[in-house]
Amino acid sequence: MNEISLEQIALQLESSNSRDRLLALASLREVSPEDAVPLIKKVLNDEMLPVRSMAVFALGVKQTEECFPILVKLLETDSDYGIRADAAGALGYLADGRAFEPLVRAFYEDTEWLVRFSAAVSLGNLRDIRAKQVLLKALESEETVVKQAAIAALGEIKAVDAVDALVAFVGSEDWLIRQRLAEALGNLNTDKSISALKFLAKDEHPQVKQAATLSLERLE
C-alpha cells in the first residue's frame, strides 16, 4: 500500500466517528505488519470498546516483535475483562511460546470466565504439552464453554494420557461438548479413543455423529 493510503488510514483513525475508526482498522488487512502496528497502537486506548477490541485482535494478526509485550500487558492489567479476553485470544494467534506462562497465569488468576475461556483456547493453539495440567483443571470448570475449550485444546496438544479424563464426557448432555470430544479424540490414537468414537458415531446429534465419523476415519 502506498504512503498516501497509509496517511489516509491514519487520518481516519483520528476521526470522531467510531465507525470510521473501525473501517480504518479493517483497511489495515492488506498493510504490512511493520506499517500496520504503529497505526493500531493509536487506538488501543480508544474510548469505544469495539474499536479497542478490534485493535487488540489486529495485534495478534499483524505479528511484529512489538506485539507480544503489548498483548501481555493488556492481558495482565487492563480493567476491561473483554479486552483481557481479546488479548488472550490474540496471543494464541501469535503462536509465540513465550505466551505460555502469561496464559497459564490468566487462567488461574483471572476471575472472569471469558478470560479463562480465551486462555484455554490459546493454550491449545500454542500446542505446548506443558498446558496439559491446566487444561485438565479447566475440565472441572462450572462454565460449559470453558470445558469445551479445554477438551478441544487437549486434542490440539495431543495429550494422549488425558484420554481417560476426556472420555468421561462421552455422555454429556451438551452436544457441543460431545462434538468437541469427538474432534479431540481424532488426535489421540488409543483404543479408548476409538471405542468412544464408535459410540459417538451413533450419537443422535448429526454434528457429533459427523465429527466422530471423521475422527474414526483419521485414526483407522
TrEMBL record:
<keyword id="KW-0605">Phycobilisome</keyword>
<protein>
    <submittedName>
        <fullName>PBS lyase HEAT domain protein repeat-containing protein</fullName>
    </submittedName>
</protein>
<dbReference type="InterPro" id="IPR016024">
    <property type="entry name" value="ARM-type_fold"/>
</dbReference>
<dbReference type="Pfam" id="PF13646">
    <property type="entry name" value="HEAT_2"/>
</dbReference>
<keyword id="KW-0042">Antenna complex</keyword>
<dbReference type="InterPro" id="IPR011989">
    <property type="entry name" value="ARM-like"/>
</dbReference>
<dbReference type="InterPro" id="IPR004155">
    <property type="entry name" value="PBS_lyase_HEAT"/>
</dbReference>
<dbReference type="GO" id="GO:0016829">
    <property type="term" value="F:lyase activity"/>
</dbReference>
<keyword id="KW-0456">Lyase</keyword>
<dbReference type="GO" id="GO:0016491">
    <property type="term" value="F:oxidoreductase activity"/>
</dbReference>
<dbReference type="GO" id="GO:0030089">
    <property type="term" value="C:phycobilisome"/>
</dbReference>
